[in-house]
Design brief:
By secondary structure, the protein is an all-alpha fold. The chain folds into two domains: about 60 residues; about 130 residues. Helix content is about 70%, strand content about 0%. Helix 2 runs antiparallel to helix 7 and helix 6 runs antiparallel to helix 7. It is elongated. The protein starts with a helix and ends in a 5-residue tail after the last helix.
Length: about 210
């Protein structure tokens, strides 16, 4: 009986010591979270950033210096850069017409309310977030993720701009009587350009 009591007393003392040590560790951890560990975390972050091998770009080669100018880029990167500039220019032309040139030219023939109706043609650029997931999800493996949208959109936009160039005088003269048709044509054109903007932004400089 005495041995069992001694054994029970020893086990209970061990349990008490374990509980006390765990409570001490818990208090230490809590103190570190409350403020004591903030300085150590900051110090660790500073040491990490101070390393020579630290980089946020995983594919960046630290042994190569950064390009100082456009001419220092590789021929492939230079072609991609000029292609990117060209695509942004082409999709900006209809936006410049719909938001600047055409409303300015129509000021002499339309009222402010009618010009306000025509400005609805620029809304697709603000609403492109609605169909941008479709541009990312649907594409042809033969043409590539971005070319599947850029090529057909640019082709349709070119045809529409050529048609508008031939019908511009008649449409401007009949703008008051065919205002909604005029607005719908530019609405479709701006929608195509907004779709191209989504595709180009998705790939950015490294266009296939």
């Amino acid at each position: 009986m005495s041995r069992s009591r001694r054994g029970g007393g020893a086990s209970s003392s061990k349990r008490k010591s374990m509980n006390s040590s765990s409570s001490v560790e818990f208090r230490r951890g809590k103190m570190a979270l409350d403020g004591g560990g903030s300085s150590s975390t900051t110090t660790q972050a500073e040491h990490l950033i101070a390393r020579e091998s630290f980089s946020l770009d995983q594919d960046h080669d630290v042994s190569k210096p950064a390009s100082a100018s456009l001419m220092d880029l590789s021929p492939k990167d230079r072609r991609n850069f000029f292609l990117l500039v060209l695509l942004y220019f082409l999709q900006g032309v209809p936006m410049g017409l719909a938001m600047g040139s055409v409303p300015f030219l129509l000021k002499s023939t339309l009222s402010y309310g009618e010009i306000g109706v025509f400005t609805l043609a620029s809304y697709p650029y603000s609403m492109k977030l609605l169909w941008s997931p479709i541009v990312d999800a649907i594409w042809s493996p033969k043409m590539g993720r971005r070319k599947s949208w850029i090529v057909p959109v640019q082709a349709v936009s070119s045809v529409m701009l050529l048609w508008l160039g031939g019908q511009a005088e008649n449409l401007m003269a009949e703008a008051s009587t065919r205002l909604y048709f005029f607005t719908w044509v530019f609405f479709c054109l701006v929608m195509l350009c907004a779709t191209q903007d989504v595709a180009v932004d998705g790939r950015h400089p490294s266009l296939p």
